[in-house]
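thought: user wants a sequence for this fold. calling inverse folding tool.
action: design(structure=
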């Protein structure tokens, strides 16, 4: 299940690259009486829906806990956003479907094999935030959570789902 979820999460994290390309190329869905703005809205809404499905699937991952031993926590939203915006610039600069396909496959492979690049700005719409948590053993992990963390005092993560050894999602926050 974990491998499958990582594939789905990777696809979800990179799919906006294709959405931006389709909008840039003004690709309209082949549905009668559907204008381009409706098509673009469907593209964007489908990524939001897909993100929601990814969040629901995460409930089936293995459970984990981080309590005590947290020595530092820092927001990760700002550090990943520039990387994610890079996908937009790539999508805007790619000039054909063949190149887009190859670029997408390469980004997908790199994102899948990375330990922490499951940042998906669509999760922000569902109230999730992204954090780097450093444990007392020096391990720095990536946590996706609804918690609004301002202090280490009493901080516990008791309802985590493990995506991989370095990435966790706190689905219920």
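)
observation: tool returned 173 residues.
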């Amino acid at each position: 299940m974990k491998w499958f979820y990582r594939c789905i999460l990777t696809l979800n994290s990179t799919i906006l690259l294709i959405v931006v390309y389709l909008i840039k190329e003004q690709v309209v869905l082949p549905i009668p009486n559907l204008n381009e703005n409706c098509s673009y809205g469907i593209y964007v809404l489908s990524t939001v829906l897909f993100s929601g499905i990814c969040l629901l699937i995460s409930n089936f991952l293995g459970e984990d806990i981080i309590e005590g031993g947290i020595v530092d926590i820092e927001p990760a939203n700002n550090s990943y956003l520039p990387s994610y915006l890079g996908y937009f610039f790539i999508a805007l600069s790619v000039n054909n479907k063949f190149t887009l396909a190859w670029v997408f496959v390469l980004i997908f492979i790199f994102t899948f094999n990375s330990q922490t690049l499951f940042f998906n700005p669509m999760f922000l719409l569902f109230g999730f935030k992204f954090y780097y948590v450093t444990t007392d053993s020096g391990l720095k992990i990536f946590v996706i959570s609804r918690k609004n963390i301002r202090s280490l005092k009493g901080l516990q993560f008791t309802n985590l789902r493990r995506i991989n050894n370095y990435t966790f999602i706190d689905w219920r926050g």
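thought: summarizing for user.
answer: Here is the designed sequence. Helices lie at 2-24, 36-57, 77-93, 97-113, 122-125.
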